[in-house]
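Chapter review: from sequence to fold.
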Amino acid sequence: MSYLVGIDLGSTSLKVVIYDLAGHAVAKASRPTQVFNPDAAHPDWAIWKPEQIWGGTAEALREAVSRLDDPKKIRAVAVTGMGMDGVPVDKQGRWLYPFISWHCPRTAPQHAWWLEHIGAEKQFAISGNPLWAINSALRILWMRENEPAILDKTDKWLLIEDFVNFMLCGVRATDYSMASNTLLLDQRTHRYSDELLRLSCIERRWLCDPLPSGTRLGEVHAQAAAATGLPAGTPVILGGHDFLCGMLPVGAFKPGVVLDVMGTWDIVTVAIGQPVLTPAVQRMGWWIDSHVARDMYVAMGTAVSADMLEWFRREYGQPEKQQAATAGGKDWDYLMAAAGAAPPGAHGVMFLPHMSGCTIPAPDPKSKGAFIGLRNIATKGDMIRAVIEGLNYQFLEIMAGLETAVGVTPQKLVAGGGGTSNPFWMQNRADMAGRAIEAPAVEETTPLGAAILAGIGVGLYKNEEDAFRQVYRPGRVYEPDLKLTAFYTERFEVFRKIYPALKEINAGL
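The token string follows.
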């Protein structure tokens, strides 16, 4: 028996899952990821403490490893997690400043500077990144302007996965998918762009060399072994960005296989053979990243999603919460029953899901959410159904852009994330899309993707396809009702008119 360890550094938890080669979790543990707001003068500034990130990861490793029959059966470990947060370290490996969390708004001025002096179009044409205020390069600019003495002492700016790898084996490196989040990687060459470095005055020496995911970095050293319980000498393999690792166990490294992660955000991803860095793709709000799958890229379209369902539940779901407390079940059961009792089209009610702005098909932070078509026959069931239909129309917009801008015709749809536990949402999405959607029965896809890279790195899997064949578990398939597909296809054209009609009104508000 051989085991592989996947470490997942998430925004809410530091998770360790140990798998056998068939993808079964044999041990797991986690610790919370703690956001700190230490500056009284800037209460909205948010950080992660390096000692907490490493300490929590080490504790979770120690707990998970202790549950194994024999820790020496661990063949390799790899790290995945969030993408843009980094920490400066000196030549002795001491961290010099906390991670600036993606929650932190402090880099808004640097974001404005980058837009003015480099521009979103040039940025995308080189790196494939949309320009967000949380990108790594903007944190480096902030550090140069506000803490220059720290940058003078900095040897490397370690992204959060690279930091944990460094703590495990002492090697300072990154992978192509993580380097994609810096704003500075040239996607065509997988090297940092000389032009972007020159324009931003960011020094190349601060950046870790990018390597393919699955590269063997080093071995767990004695100090890390004592902290984590991992056997000294365990190979440390380069992982990658979390959502990309999650694509491996469900087959979304194959062209035409579209993965939709349904959670707080809808994250729609598909593997592509070459980076598509056209103005049309940039204007629509797509990301083009390097995949963790060897020699592949990925197109990603995102939009805030389940957060709006949670808003409705919180603000208007108190009766259902009380009903669940007295009659049993969950409040979601009653809310979804009400949505299911409403007719398709929700008696003419439609919902524009822009409560956090619009990302696709037209990035617009000033856009706002809206219910339209309300009449005095509308019920709560109509309203909640309209929210779900609005989220699914938004999904159709992402899928339309995938074909028209990115040039990918979907062959298979698979879904993951918490939304897959909502059968009504899933069925309605299949009906709208006119395509079957499968929710694979794969356990913890993100750390499993890291474990797959660990296995490839030490030769336990030949490649991604070999690993996929061993770990994949088919799940429930939602088949579309094609009569409803025709109905929703007509209404989709109405939905697409809502944002342009309200754009100036919402901007004025």
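Two observations follow directly from the output. The chain has a mean pLDDT of 95. The chain is about 40% helix and 20% strand.
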